[in-house]
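Fold it.
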Amino acid sequence: MSRVLRVAAYEYRTNVLKRSFLLSLFSLPLILTVSIGAGVILESISSNTQPIGFVDDAGVITTLEAPGLEQEADGITVLPFEEVEQARAALEAGELQAYFILPADYRTTGAVRLVFMDQASEQARAQFHDLLRYNLARDYPTPVTDRIVGGTDITIRSPDGSRAYPAGGPTFSVALPLFVSAGFVFLLLIASGYAMGAVAGERESRTMEVLITSIPPGALIRGKLISILGISLTLLAFWTLVGIAAVRVGAEVYGIRWLQEASVEWSSVGAVLLIAVPNYITAIAIMVMVGSTVGELQEGQSLSGIFMLVFFLPLYAIRIIGDHPGGPLAQALSFLPFTSLLTVGIRNMVSVLPGSELLVSAFVQAVFAALAVWLAGRAFRIGILRIGQKVGLREVFRSRQLREEAGSPG
């Protein structure tokens, strides 16, 4: 055990001190920061907080103080004008982003004109619409007025009734399983790269020949796998802390309502973790097998890149999975070992995954993980005997040849 731990400690220290590890450590937070920052910048560019005006020839708007409607909500002020010429002059002078005209026959026709030089913002049009709706309904009884002013409150529900969220989109708790799935896929990409490089690199440089003279092959590979697990846990812990900090900053500092209402639906997160753990083992084992069979590190990196693309296949079918979370395609992708992780995350966002399907998927993932570990062990033993040579995958399955070359009865 002491040899295994020494190998693990050495591999861990060697990898975490590399620049590539720091890049991996900050890659996911950096991607999220750039994505969110770009969205905020585009939103700020597209938003317009200039005042809006109106000319009311129909005498409909008699007050600008509507209950529940702040005059400067979203930084937009509503200004009344007596004449159209006054409003036009203010618009041409750059004092308004737009102005509305309610003609004298508005109560009969319901027609409203919007005049602008550049497209009026959605916030401006919505604010004037709310103000106009209140003034039209203010003479009705209070309950009726409140109902009209409150507008439409749409709730989206899945066909089986297991998911419900506002029309604006999923809540944080509903979207969290997909975030967890994506984070684990990203972790798999990084950890599997370490696993493949840890074997293929030393086979190519023939360092493996020296190592196996001083430490048993089994202890060597166990130590390397423990170090990869430690690297993965380090990345996962850091990303989790960054995620928690980002949620708190967004909720408390920037007042993002979506984050202020953040909560964790542990059953959905647990469902993703139940699939993620065997997927992690499968990916690491397959990369060990690839590293044990290729002749050069570059060849292994090319093969691992192609292999990892399979994990992202559910993204190409996200529309179909979202529209039919219980359909045959969604179910099939939930059971396959490399597509199940993201598929379960997507399905959990739009519906609750049936317990029976989750258990079947977890069982399939566990079987594939066990098979992958077994094949990785066989490939590693053959790779030691063929250092500097490329090993065909067919040879991994030939137990007789393995026993003959190892000089072992089995």
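Confidence is low (pLDDT under 50) at residues 400-410.
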